[in-house]
């Protein structure tokens, strides 16, 4: 059990009951006896991450903090210190109290609009430019909903972002989308192995016979990039 929980946590997942057919999530109380304080902290973080919808997640941009918050809770917290928080986009971190921009995801830019800031700082962090170059080299694509980079390692053209997979099963079809990528593949239904950082996730892929003949519809010749298509 200890090894099972550790592996799941270190791979960015919440551990479930290891018994076949049981999908119950394990609780911290039942795992605290054999987990180290560090792993308990990680498990607590994973539980919080899972409880906040992808579109609601926001991280403190200050490197020494990086606290995870939901947009609603950080807005409520910021209202006490910033009267025009909702209109201005300024927020206070609930952990370090640092002021930041909820739209630009950077420390607050005084006397500058978000559009001006983004124009002057297309890559506010040096790592952003490196990531974009790496993504272009490896043909990665970015989810328009959660902004995570994904890579097609095997399978067909269409992928469902792992962060929206649960929404699909909840019948929230409007949240489901497909990303068209350049790599070829002609399997009808299979599980594709997708890598994001050090994580490995299974995504459901589906391509009916003949779809590859219509790929031109998804290609934008002006921007030389593929666009996101809703299923």
Task: Provide a compact summary of the structure.
Its cofactor is Zn(2+). Helices cover 29% and strands 19% of the residues. The protein is built from eight helices and 13 strands.
Task: Explain how this protein is built.
This protein has a three-stranded antiparallel beta sheet. A two-stranded antiparallel ribbon has the order 1-2. A two-stranded antiparallel sheet has the order 6-7. Helix content is 29%, strand content 19%. The longest helix is centred in the first third of the chain and has 15 residues, at 37-51. The protein folds into three domains: 2-51, no CATH class; 54-120, no CATH class; 126-230, no CATH class. It has helices at residues 2-10, 28-31, 37-51, 71-79, 85-88, 114-120, 126-138, 165-169, and strands spanning 57-59, 68-70, 90-92, 99-101, 106-107, 141-142, 149-150, 177-179, 189-196, 199-206, 219-220, 225-226, 228-230. It is built from eight helices and 13 strands.
